[in-house]
Amino acid sequence: MSDFAATKAMFHLPEGVIYLDGNSLGPLPKAAGARMERAMRDEWGEMLITGWNKAGWMAQPAELGDRIARLIGAEPGHVMLGDTLSIKVYQALAAALEMRPERRVILSDSGNFPSDLYMAEGLIGALDRGYELRVVAPEEVADAINPDVAVTLLTEVDYRTGRMHDMAALTARAHDAGALTIWDLAHSAGAVPVDLAGVDADFAVGCTYKFLNGGPGAPAFIYVAPRYADHARPALSGWLGHAAPFDFEQVYRAGEGLARMRVGTPPVLAMAALDSALDIWDGVDMKALRTRAQTLSERFIASVEDSCPMLELASPRDPEARGSQVSFRFAQGYAAMQACIAQGVIGDFRAPDIMRFGITPLYIDAGDIDRAAAVIARVMQDRLWDDPAYQARSAVT
């Protein structure tokens, strides 16, 4: 049984703030500062370069990958940490395309995060072999999977609305058509139960700064199914993915298993912060988390809809069909969200009209939900958003 009162006490949450944006950036674990200080003072400071061996820095991408593996239903030894999510998308997509050389279609949907689509476009241009990025509506993905498709590139939970794809069904559909699958877990890892091994997924990628609370710029991860780990070709053949990086050979030889998916130098300080965040997850059951998130989400939707008829629910009505976020549509959504933030309720905005709220039971409880709903009601009913101060767009929305 997960103790969510205990996990809430493990986070630094500013006084007077209700934080409903953990789907974009998780809050600071209280232990992260001391863990990073230890990495800086005792490891970097005292060990200097010997920290790569003495402090185990070089092994951390695999070790932290195994800790994440438990949360996404992956086999031990098949999740590797490092680099950014866009880089991991590029790696997975390049490897998958090479495994289906006779096919030329990458299938995605219009609810996918744009960066995934950008990376696909860039890879298509670099390869210059007639590949096509085919983008359909989310509800049309299943019917669009045909023998032309080499790989599906899908985000399980829509970043705007929280709508969820059926990972098991779409993976099976792709395999029946001879296609491979890449699942982006940016809004799934730490939010909903994931069973990569159980659904027979081929590749998956994700970030650690959202629901996993690893901090701004925290490293991404990649999953490669065991059947491909020893021969998936890493398109980005970085030094640390070499079979023997300290032999300094002039020609690249891919490392064994998932080690080949390493690219650049591990971000040691960022990994220290993530390490402390994952300590919190050690006592969390994902099914209990999911149940709690659904309960809180239903409470939030009911309260907001009761007091704010001008807001239109953009997320699926069925709690089983959405991830751990609730989104509403409002024509002046950006200004309304800025007004909410000024009143101490932090969510975010996604163009053109989405007000987005993350429901994260690790540190959000029913009292927070009720107080947040009351603030939103005041902002909307009193038209606090109709203030020129809230109209000016900031660089990050």
Automatic annotation (TrEMBL):
What EC designation does it have?
3.7.1.3
| GO-annotated molecular function | kynureninase activity; pyridoxal phosphate binding
| GO BP: any one term | anthranilate metabolic process
Q: Which reaction does it catalyse?
A: 3-hydroxy-L-kynurenine + H2O = 3-hydroxyanthranilate + L-alanine + H(+); L-kynurenine + H2O = anthranilate + L-alanine + H(+)
Its keywords, alphabetically, are: Hydrolase, Pyridine nucleotide biosynthesis, Pyridoxal phosphate
- The enzyme's first-digit EC class, named in words, is hydrolase
Q: Which GO terms describe its cellular component?
A: cytoplasm
Which co-factor is required?
A: pyridoxal 5'-phosphate
Indicate where the modification N6-(pyridoxal phosphate)lysine is found in the sequence.
K210
The reply on keyword rRNA-binding is no
Task: Name any one Pfam family assigned in the record.
Answer: KYNU_C
Hydrolase listed as a keyword: yes
Q: In which pathway does it act?
A: Cofactor biosynthesis; NAD(+) biosynthesis; quinolinate from L-kynurenine: step 2/3; Amino-acid degradation; L-kynurenine degradation; L-alanine and anthranilate from L-kynurenine: step 1/1
Which branch of life, at top level? Answer: Bacteria
Binding of pyridoxal 5'-phosphate, residues? L85, S86, F113, P114, S115, D116, T155, D184, H187, Y209, W239, T265
> What is the protein's quaternary organization?
Homodimer.
Q: Which family does it belong to?
A: Belongs to the kynureninase family.
Function of the molecule: Catalyzes the cleavage of L-kynurenine (L-Kyn) and L-3-hydroxykynurenine (L-3OHKyn) into anthranilic acid (AA) and 3-hydroxyanthranilic acid (3-OHAA), respectively.
Q: What is this protein called?
A: Kynureninase
**What species is this protein from?**
Roseovarius halotolerans
